[in-house]
UniProtKB/TrEMBL annotation:
<keyword id="KW-0560">Oxidoreductase</keyword>
<feature type="site" description="Important for catalysis">
    <location>
        <position position="191"/>
    </location>
</feature>
<dbReference type="GO" id="GO:0051287">
    <property type="term" value="F:NAD binding"/>
</dbReference>
<keyword id="KW-0479">Metal-binding</keyword>
<keyword id="KW-0460">Magnesium</keyword>
<keyword id="KW-0100">Branched-chain amino acid biosynthesis</keyword>
<feature type="binding site">
    <location>
        <position position="101"/>
    </location>
    <ligand>
        <name>substrate</name>
    </ligand>
</feature>
<comment type="pathway">
    <text>Amino-acid biosynthesis; L-leucine biosynthesis; L-leucine from 3-methyl-2-oxobutanoate: step 3/4.</text>
</comment>
<dbReference type="InterPro" id="IPR024084">
    <property type="entry name" value="IsoPropMal-DH-like_dom"/>
</dbReference>
<feature type="binding site">
    <location>
        <begin position="286"/>
        <end position="298"/>
    </location>
    <ligand>
        <name>NAD(+)</name>
    </ligand>
</feature>
<feature type="site" description="Important for catalysis">
    <location>
        <position position="136"/>
    </location>
</feature>
<dbReference type="Pfam" id="PF00180">
    <property type="entry name" value="Iso_dh"/>
</dbReference>
<keyword id="KW-0464">Manganese</keyword>
<comment type="function">
    <text>Catalyzes the oxidation of 3-carboxy-2-hydroxy-4-methylpentanoate (3-isopropylmalate) to 3-carboxy-4-methyl-2-oxopentanoate. The product decarboxylates to 4-methyl-2 oxopentanoate.</text>
</comment>
<feature type="binding site">
    <location>
        <position position="223"/>
    </location>
    <ligand>
        <name>Mg(2+)</name>
    </ligand>
</feature>
<dbReference type="GO" id="GO:0005829">
    <property type="term" value="C:cytosol"/>
</dbReference>
<feature type="binding site">
    <location>
        <position position="91"/>
    </location>
    <ligand>
        <name>substrate</name>
    </ligand>
</feature>
């Protein structure tokens, strides 16, 4: 099992170190671990946020564990050289179009949610975010109009096959949850009342639904979805949405749970390896420059991303369960980082998870 670790910038290396300790503790047979440069760190060393050798390493691996990229000192570079291009480039070059972002309440954490505990307790949602299309990857420009005014330009589009493949991922997820008795509903979130991109999205999701009669499909406009997510998160089971809306709604969902430092994600495509589905795993949060280097970052989202990697890419379901249980137990025992109103530091949280593994 070949695993590539890309720690990146800011808190990336700090949280990756804790995930690495957990990975090492599992003592997996036949495991090979590589480390590669991404983001601002890679730009400084190689002149590019996603060097060719990193991309080669990613292609050769069975799974990738990714920390975070983003560096305020790089914010004025030409866009193709900015740290964020590393994650966007990995997602697009490796055809990782399906982003799974689960948000579930942990026992004992209800009081830490930004919502009232009785509302927060209900949250158990899987956001399925399309990751390789939308306004993210359309033609873009910063240009001058004929009259000399500056204009920023980003082209938003979805082609039907792009919508269909993510719809299938979401329907299958809802179907799986129906079989487990933990769900079976799919809510497609769009802005079809205004955007043609969204009208096509909705049409294709409805067409795809014919293949999944056991899944209860609904549609919601994104503005309402943002409101409903804090009003009554328990109404959602699986949510499927486009790249931009999914980015925003998943950060919002994290605060229903309690902190962005808890939410993990998987970016999957269609390629199968010997052990499972090839994928990239990362926290949904960024490099958190405001707390970087201080030992304050919560590494749980990173550690939970490792668990998702073990489950989806490496066929190690039992190890994934163990890690998730250890994190849940640490939270229940009151091991809380500053993001959750506690005072446990990055290493201390890593220690606590390891002790409960
Ligand atoms: P962010 O997610 O980095 O931080 C937002 C807030 O959440 C900050 O106050 C931060 O301290 C806090 N936070 C985030 N993760 C935390 C953790 N694990 N523990 C405790 N607190 C945590 O978002 P931002 O500030 O908008 O972006 C910072 C940089 O990260 C930018 O350059 C952005 O482009 C980049 N970014 C990268 C990714 C990625 O690598 N996938 C994701 C999001 C943002
Ligand atoms: C995320 C991030 C990225 C995104 C950025 C850093 C490109 O916000 O992974 O959620 O917008 O997809
Ligand atoms: Mn984001």
């Amino acid at each position: 099992m070949k695993i590539a670790l890309f720690a990146g910038d800011g808190i990336g290396p700090e949280i990756m170190e804790q995930a690495r300790r957990v990975l090492d503790a599992l003592n997996l047979p036949g495991i090979v671990v590589w480390e590669g440069d991404v983001g601002g760190a890679a730009y400084r060393r190689h002149g590019h946020p996603l060097p060719e050798e990193t991309l080669q390493m990613a292609r050769a691996a069975d799974a990738i564990l990714f920390g975070a990229v983003g560096d305020p000192e790089c914010d004025n570079l030409e866009r193709h050289l900015r740290p964020e291009q590393a994650i966007l480039g990995l997602r697009s070059n490796l055809d990782l179009f399906a982003n799974l972002r689960p948000a579930t309440m942990y026992p004992g954490l209800e009081d830490m949610s930004a919502l009232r505990p009785e509302i927060a307790r209900q949250i158990d949602v899987l956001i399925v975010r399309e990751l390789n299309g939308d306004v993210y990857f359309g033609e873009k420009a910063m240009r001058k109009l004929e009259d000399g005014r500056r204009q920023g330009y980003d082209f938003m589009s979805y082609a039907e096959d792009e919508v269909r493949r993510i719809a299938h991922v979401a329907f299958r997820a809802a179907q799986g949850r129906a079989e487990k008795g933990t769900g079976g509903k799919l809510c497609s979130v769009d802005k079809a009342n205004v955007l043609e991109t969204s009208q096509l999205w909705r049409d294709v999701v409805i067409e795809t639904a014919a293949e999944y009669p056991e899944v209860e499909l609904s549609h919601m406009y994104v503005d309402n979805a943002a409101m409903q997510l804090v009003k009554d998160p328990g109404q959602f089971d699986v949510v499927v949405t486009g790249n931009l809306f999914g980015d925003i709604l998943s950060d919002q969902a994290s605060m229903c749970v309690g902190s962005i430092g808890l939410l993990a994600s998987a970016a999957l495509g269609e390629r199968q390896t010997e052990f499972g589905t090839f994928g990239l795993y990362e926290p949904i949060h960024g490099s958190a420059p405001d707390i970087a280097g201080k030992g304050l970052a919560n590494p749980m989202a990173m550690i939970l991303s490792l668990a998702m990697m073990l489950r989806h890419s490496l066929g190690r379901e039992a190890d994934a369960d163990r890690i998730e249980a250890a994190v849940a137990k640490a939270l229940q025992d009151g091991v809380l980082g500053g993001d959750l109103g506690g005072d446990a530091g990055t290493v201390e949280i890593g220690d606590a998870v390891l002790a409960r593994l």
